[in-house]
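To assess whether the prediction recovers the assembly geometry, we first specified each molecular entity separately, as shown.
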Amino acid sequence: MRALTFFLFITSSVFAQEMDSSAYLNMKSIVEYLASDSLKGRGTGSVEEQTAAEYISASLKKSGYKVKKQKFSFVYDSLNYKSQNIIGFVNNRKDSTLLITAHYDHLGMGDYMSLSGPGVIHNGADDNASGVALMLQLADDLVDSVQNYNLLIVGYAAHELGLFGSHYFSENLCPKYTEIVLAINFDMVGRMDKERHGYFQSSDVNLNALISNTERVKWTKSVKERLSKLDSKWFLESGVPSLTISTGIHLDYHKYSDDVQYINWDGIERIHVDLKKWLLNSFR
Ligand SMILES: [Zn+2]
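The predicted structure of the complete assembly is given in tokenized form:
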């Protein structure tokens, strides 16, 4: 037993040395804020969705991005909705742009799409406060180091009702954002299992090889076709190399029980450490 304890201490302390505790705490505080009851589940078109948008905007500005709100409207179930994507850009005056995205809306009070019924706040800690936290952390990590690519970070709204935000963004792409060399999307990265599985799906074979070579996560190619069902869909269709990252669907998916106490913080940090390393090696 003592030998086992010692072994566990050694392996966890090796990871601890490589963990970035400020990143860990930053991502934790982002998830805790976005998934708090005060944001009432960040329902599409709600005041709280706007509050989340302001928070993402402030975070990107603080990291050094030029931030734009991209407002759009759409009709769902005969109702008119107004919403906004948050776009952060660093123009390094290069021909290629790295795009990192995550949707920030969720189910609000569960009136649509809930699998546990309406009338209760659906905090969406995993879906997708976790993805936003990872996106904002990597945005901050890359801003000073990446010189040979422009950086484009987008928080998508109105995902849950039918990928409206990402669709609008892809249809109204500003010319200075192209050519997009890779579109990475995070959707639900907070529920890593004990075996440390992270799931990915990639449109490009070379990307598969790269992502399999990281160290802290057992990267597994997703068995579900997610690229074409998530916000990656529009870039995939226009031939942009696309990558989606997730820790997968779980029993609390789209239920009010998708809450902060079930988030695997160590798991998010493992993905963060792996991806940061991979991105800095590939896109510096
Ligand atoms: Zn969802």
